[in-house]
Amino acid sequence: MRVAVVGAGAMGSLVAHILAGAEVEVALYEIRAERRATLASDGLRLRGVLEGESKPQVRSPSEGGEPFDVLILAVKAHAGGDALRPLSPFVHRDTFYLSLQEGNAGEGLAELVGEERAWTALAWVSAAEAGGGAVEVEGCRSLVIGPAVPREAVAVPPGLEALVGALRGGFPGHVELAKDTCRAVFSRLLSAAPVSAFCALCAENPGSLRGREEVDGWVREASGECSLVAASAGLEVEVPADPWEDAVWNRLPPPMLRDAVAGRITERDYLTGFLLREAGRLRLRTPLLSALHSLLGEVESGARVPGEVLLRELRRRVSEERGMSLM
């Protein structure tokens, strides 16, 4: 089985390391020349709850390669099409694609490659690049792998069970192959959406925010709004007793926080944005998620700078949203 992992960030590197350890033929594609050079010279080093060293093949997307059986997409959710395009000549009729991205990014992958070929992995993982080719792994709770979009008849592509088996052999948490990932998407978003959004808004790590009573209350309220959307969509999803704990991130910054601080496009459209679209479809009011999403949009556009000062504006918008919901 030949596997291409597109994106040598923390998640892509982690999966490439696991697969290489299972003696899977894996190539790691990375657009950043500096990252490629570091991994080529120093290799890949994981530390934390998952430790080890490996030296996977690292290539530029322009280099291509042999036909691949699996393409694992480990780039930002909004960059999927651009990341896959250079490798499109190196697939065959049985190649399938796996989104290792946040939120509901699997739906976008299905639009690009077709529903039958598109699969997704919901990851309860906290990991970040640590420099010098190293990746710090704070937590690896579970991976839930299944079709990117729900459908009645699901044909398991050749190689998927072997891929899942290889991941189970090296992943320190639980790896599940599911027939339907709709419940898993909402289950992940119950904690990932509010925790990562508030961290991005305040420019603080979860470990420092979770002890603040007001923010903790808002995170739990936002998780409740997520649960309401899921229940209205007909999905019974267990609400986490502690969204901070369920999100897995603690010392390490969530990706949305890193992007917001760096002035990059965030994945809010696949987190709070997805939840708001679902709420609109179901004619539900979600005042906190709505206010949070709009304010994050202004951070993303550069109109506002992330920081604690934005909590005052959030209070105002939440109050306004709640007033509108009573009209």
What does this structure look like?
The chain is α/β, with parallel strands linked by helices. It folds into two domains: 2-179, 3-Layer(aba) Sandwich (Rossmann fold), CATH 3.40.50.720; 183-325, N-(1-d-carboxylethyl)-l-norvaline Dehydrogenase, domain 2, CATH 1.10.1040. Helices cover 45% and strands 21% of the residues. Strands 1, 2, 3, 4, 5, 6, 7, 8, 9 and 10 form a ten-stranded mixed beta sheet that branches. Helix 11 (272-281) packs across helix 12 (287-301). It is globular. The N and C termini lie far apart (58 Å).
| Overall number of domains | 2
The CATH class designation of the largest domain is Alpha Beta
In percent terms, what proportion of residues is strand? 15-25%
Distance between the termini: 58 Å
**What number is the mean pLDDT?**
93
Largest beta-sheet details? 10 strands, mixed
Which overall shape is indicated by the principal axes computed on the Cα atoms? globular
Helix proportion of residues, in percent?
40-55%
- CATH level-four homologous superfamily name of the largest domain: NAD(P)-binding Rossmann-like Domain
Helical element count? 13
How is this fold's topology laid out?
Layout: E1 2-6, H1 10-21, E2 25-29, H2 33-42, E3 44-48, E4 52-54, E5 57-59, E6 68-73, H3 80-84, E7 91-99, H4 105-113, E8 118-131, E9 134-147, H5 160-170, E10 174-177, H6 182-202, H7 206-209, H8 213-232, H9 243-247, H10 255-262, H11 272-281, H12 287-301, H13 310-325
Parallel strand pairs: 1-2, 1-6, 2-5, 3-9, 6-7, 7-8, 9-10
Antiparallel strand pairs: 3-4, 8-9
Helix pairs in contact: 1-5, 6-8, 6-10, 6-12, 11-12, 12-13
